[in-house]
């Protein structure tokens, strides 16, 4: 039987206290290769990026700021921290390179 590959991308503000155990449980039950990235972005940069999204008209800056937890890694095995100094293109290149190496 051919192997099944699954690609899951979660994007958002996922606090470790709320989502860390869920992500760790998903990874433990997966059994295959997994890549986990944490985008380490300051609050000002988070708000700047949020303002460019379609949802910005529905979720205001103070609400986003209330969700913000600095350096709140999920604690998943192999979690890679990407800094805000990386361009979008550099992040995509990194992800594609890591996927190709699996």
How would you describe what is shown here?
The mean pLDDT is 87. This protein has a domain at 37-100. The longest helix is centred in the N-terminal third of the chain and has 15 residues, at 16-30. It is 42% helix and 8% strand. It has helices at 16-30, 43-50, 61-67, 88-100, and strands at 37-40, 80-83. Strands 1-2 form a two-stranded parallel sheet.
Offer a quick outline of the entry.
This protein is 42% helix and 8% strand. The protein has 102 residues and is mainly α.
- Give the mean pLDDT: 87
**For the terminal residues, how far apart are their CA atoms?**
20 Å
What are the low-pLDDT stretches, counting only 5+ consecutive residues below 50?
none
Total of DSSP H or I helical runs spanning 4+ residues? 4
- What's the count of strands? 2
The portion of residues forming beta strands comes to 5-15%
- From the spread of the alpha carbons, the general shape counts as globular
> Strand-and-helix sequence, N→C?
HEHHEH
How big is the Rg? 15 Å
- Strands of the biggest beta sheet: in what spatial order? 1-2
Helix content: 40-55%
Please identify the structural class as seen in this structure.
mainly alpha
The biggest sheet amounts to:
2 strands, parallel
